[in-house]
Amino acid sequence: MKTIYLDNNATTRVDPRVFEEMQPYFCDLYGNPSSMHAFGGQVGSKITEARERVAAILGADPTEIIFTSCGTESDNTAIRSALESQPDRKHIVTTKVEHPAVLNLCKHLVKKGYHLTQLGVDENGRLDLDELRSAVTDNTALVSIMWANNETGTIFPIEEIAHIVKSRGTLFHTDAVQAVGKIEIDLNKIPVDFLALSGHKLHAPKGVGALYVRKRTPFRPFIIGGHQERSRRAGTEAVPSIIALGKACDVAFENMSIEQNEVRELRDRLEQGIINSVPLTIVNGDESSRLPNTSNISFKFVEGEAILLLMNELGICASSGSACTSGSLEPSHVLRAMGVPFTFAHGSIRFSLSRFNTKEEIDFVVKEFPPIIERLRAMSPYTEE
Ligand code: PLP
After folding, report:
1. Which residues, 6+ apart, have CB-to-CB distance to 153 below 8 Å?
2. pLDDT in tens, 32-57
3. % helix, strand, coil for the chain, step of 5
4. What is the pLDDT at residue 383?
5. Which residues contact ligand 1 via a Cβ below 6 A?
6. Where do the CATH 3.90.1150.10 domains begin and end in the chain?
7. 94 strand-pairing partners
8. Which CATH class is domain 16-252?
9. Mutate to test the pocket of ligand 1, among 178, 194, 294, 319 (most ligand atoms within 8 A of CB)
10. Per-residue pLDDT tens over the stretch 98-123
11. What tens digit of pLDDT does each residue of 125-148 get?
12. CB 229 within 8 A of CB 63
């Protein structure tokens, strides 16, 4: 059975061009970039190239890029650095719809004595910027707001948010893990202090990420040890993965129009195909400001997990909007924050595409998906009053 992979916000296929670029650095060019000899030195220059490539996709300077092990590490480093560099400020502002990489750290910090404000969102997943304006005080060490939401694809107006936060003299971090490679980002124009990205969301391998830290932003390392990454992140570099991340950024930067046009077209074809043939559906997220690859749809009176199981039988991979916590299937915190009605939120599916998907795959899903919902609704104990 062929796999139809529509779960690219969870992780992506490594692009064969990326794989090819990293391969020599396992068995042949395995030197340590910190070594004095030329064998290590050539690896060092390849890391320099990777840093330039990551900087280019962000509109940043290479000295502003720190390689990390993942998006989560980048988020944790940014938040902890902001708190450590301003010990007198004890307040953090974030949103209710962040990834656990930010949310769970913030909740942990509350236990350590920090105050947390979590901004809400409306039914389309949009923030109220006046709520942000009034949340930031002189005690606020950091505002952390994601660029694009991993579940719904909603893109926040980061440029406007960054200007609001900076006008208050506060540090601003954005988790751009889902945005980098899918939409244009130019940090020459947008005054963020920290930005997190992750390799495996943009066709590089798992286990590598990067943190952008704007020049002159106070910085305190999270991992302390050797002098790697100019003493900002110790530990011998994950050389092949860093080279892969650089190549993935390069490919993504050059192919941004594929995401904007072809992937978007396929996503719309899928979404329209499904909502036109399945009644009682809601598309979740801000349709006017959404990642081109993401479609989150709720189906009334069915369980997301049951939909996933039946899709799985056909080789179709996607995600549900529920998290199986303590045995009960709770709708995700994102859909709850948006106030998606309970009978819909339980049956939410996130489809996330990539440039490797084809029209044939989408047409197969559009044909096979509606009978799945019909079958489940026929068995559902719930009915329309
Ligand atoms: N932030 C967002 C928005 C994500 O979607 C993810 C991963 O799903 C992360 C952070 C964490 O990234 P990583 O898996 O590289 O730690």
Report:
1. 9, 178, 285, 290, 291, 293, 294, 295, 296, 352
2. 999 999 999 999 999 999 999 999 99
3. 45, 20, 40
4. 63
5. 70-72, 75, 99, 101, 146, 150, 175, 177-178, 198, 200, 209
6. 4-10+256-378
7. 118
8. alpha beta
9. 178
10. 999 999 999 999 999 999 999 999 99
11. 999 999 999 999 999 999 999 999
12. no
* Residue ID of nearest Cα to ligand 1 atom 13: 71
Domain 4-10+256-378 fold is Aspartate Aminotransferase, domain 1 (3.90.1150)
Three-state SS letters, 83-105: HHHCCCCCEEEEECCCCHHHHHH
DSSP alpha helix (H) spans, the chain = 16-22, 24-27, 38-58, 71-85, 100-111, 129-135, 158-167, 228-231, 239-254, 256-257, 264-277, 304-313, 333-337, 342-345, 359-379
- Residue range(s) in the chain whose domain bears CATH number 3.40.640.10: 16-252
Give the HSE-up count for residue 7: Cα atoms under 13 Å, Cβ half-sphere: 16
- Annotated catalytic sites, by residue? 324
Q: Is the confidence at residue 329, as pLDDT, over 80?
A: no
> Could you tell me the distance, in angstroms and rounded to a whole number, from the CA of residue 243 to the centre of ligand 1?
20
Ligand 1 center to residue 101 CA distance, Å? 7
